[in-house]
Amino acid sequence: MAMAASPSIVKFLPGFDGELPFKLETGYIGVGEIDEVQLFYYFVESQGDPSNDPLILWLTGGPGCSGFSALVYEIGPLLFKVQSWKPGTLPSLRASKNSWTKVANIIFIDQPVGTGFSYGTTAAAYNSSDTVAAAQVYKFLRKWLMYNPKFGANPLYVGGDLYSGITVPLLVQTILDGIGSGSLPRMQLKGYLLGNPLTDDFIDANSKIPYAFRVNLLSDELYEDAEVSCNGDFVNVDFNNTNCVAVLQGIKENLQLLNEAQNFGPLCALAKPKGEGIQWGAEEAEFTDSLILQDIIPQLTCRSSSWMLSYIYMNDEGVQRALGVKEGTMNSTWRRCAKSLPFYEEDVSSTVAYHKNFTRTALRALIYSGDQALSIPYLGTLEWINSLGVPIFDTWRPWFVDGQVAGYTQKYEKNSYSLTFATVKGAGETAPEYKRKEALAMVNRWFAGYPV
């Protein structure tokens, strides 16, 4: 294997007051026959007991979302100071007291190639897919552990959310295959964790209407009409079935102005690129126009208010220098989540079979869902979990933080395999972004082997 580029130890970041209170390493690791794919990563050493705490490789959803998004918005040790930002200035950062790095070492990675600061040295390097990306991340992890042998004995977990429900199981299976074949370095894989994971195209999509009814977004009459007219299949619609088509159109009209990421949250006003104005919708645009930002940021009604600041911050040359980004490798502006990866093929439509295979191992799984996400409803997640045939060990019950109900949980066990499912009450599709304290308590208990 070719030697990796020297990593950067980042002690100071623009916009953060003083030295970072944690160890941050950034760098590139090349994969491919000639290292033509250069994957950028952020490694945050545990602020607890780094020698013994778990090592998590975190794959941010997408595909095409930067690891920085998870680092600063979800489970990482930094947060933007949204309320104090002034247009025309560089956003400021502060430390998060509910970072998962309090209890774990975490590698955040920009993947697949073309995401964040990751790049290809050839045009062909940008050709990727679910299976190719998983194979490349496996090679990345092998190299990273070779360059960081002191973490080779730490319990290893692979995690992610949303679209990572596809790539994480692929990667876990690849790691298991490598362990079985004796590949080095030998990885201490103990389990995986997923939040609101896209898992099966049909199950996830078909659960939206039952979920919407369950949370009082649809009337009894409308839902019952849909059940009867569509025979419970709201995805593979026969357009000759006019009753089904008509009732689904009525449901669409009822739900179309909801924010699917957090269905009880507001539908957000988002800035379009290059001063084209303001649009309403849940899809993220490229936030680069500070005049539009000046109008939107003070509202502070949407999580996208904070997303906008990442575009300003990460496209700053001083920030890129501090992070050790290679000059000349950015073909365009940095994006939190690429709206599209033109050479990426979504070639896996379901990972249920992978989870089924994991039930024959000694792995531990934590699957959690923000219970206010219409985008990937917890009902669909429960459906595929129940299809695995793993007996329920601990029946449905509330779990608590500070004496308050933080969600509901159910545990499954079969031989040496265990799966914990938990909802996070009031959270959207990226639960730690909405409920940081509760999410940290959940994962801390799970890592320690305690009931959630």
From TrEMBL:
Species this chain originates from: Diospyros kaki
SUPFAM superfamilies for this protein: alpha/beta-Hydrolases
Protein name (Swiss-Prot/TrEMBL): Serine carboxypeptitase-like protein 1
Family (UniProt): Belongs to the peptidase S10 family.
GO BP field: proteolysis; secondary metabolic process
Highest taxon in the source lineage: Eukaryota
Phylogenetic classification of the source organism: Eukaryota, Viridiplantae, Streptophyta, Embryophyta, Tracheophyta
GO terms of molecular function: acyltransferase activity, transferring groups other than amino-acyl groups; serine-type carboxypeptidase activity
Pfam family, one: Peptidase_S10
Gene it is expressed from: dkSCPL1
